[in-house]
Amino acid sequence: MPPEIEPFHFEGTEPFTSCDGFDIIVNFEVDGLYTAFFDQQGNLVREQIHVRGTGELVNTVTGKTETGSSPLMVIVDYKRGTETTVGLIFHNNIPGQGIVALGAGRITFNLDTGEVIFVGGPHPEFDEIDWCSMLA
């Protein structure tokens, strides 16, 4: 069976986190391409999602902003039982300070257990990053 391919786009503004004295919202825009692969019997065997996203974090009191981007690909392989994310998951720079938040490289999870089975590159959790200091 040939793959099914579907482009997608979404954008918006959402709450991001609360800090002492201010909140942070995120304005974002995401473009992508979803591809589903099937075996000869028509069973879904792999999904690939190519994503190019941009975002802007905003301090709701001062208006201070911080931009970021994240071109990446997610591959869900049902035969192997894995989900792999490859690319620039998030990337934030502050002028004069350089990179202040970076999630990049490759990370693979077991679909059944959620266990990380491979890590290449920095992959901090969002709550490990001091977003409040970046936008104070």
Write structural notes for this entry.
- The protein is mainly beta and 136 residues long.
- The protein has one domain.
- It is 4% helix and 68% strand.
- The protein has 1 helix and 7 strands, in the order βββββββα.
- The protein has a 7-stranded antiparallel beta sheet.
- A hairpin with a 3-residue loop joins strand 5 (82-94) and strand 6 (98-110).
- The termini are far apart.
Short description:
The protein is mostly beta strands.
What's the layout of helices and strands?
Elements: E1 4-19, E2 22-38, E3 44-59, E4 65-77, E5 82-94, E6 98-110, E7 116-120, H1 131-135
Antiparallel strand pairs: 1-2, 2-3, 3-4, 4-5, 5-6, 6-7
Which key terms come to mind for this protein?
136 residues; mainly beta; seven-stranded antiparallel β-sheet
Strand content: over 45%
The number of domains is 1
Cα gyration radius (Å):
18 Å
Instruction: Choose one word for the global shape.
Output: elongated
* Strand line-up across the major sheet: 1-2-3-4-5-6-7
Q: Total number of β-strand segments?
A: 7
SSE topology string? EEEEEEEH
Output the number of helix runs: 1
What low-confidence regions span 5 or more consecutive residues with pLDDT below 50?
Answer: none
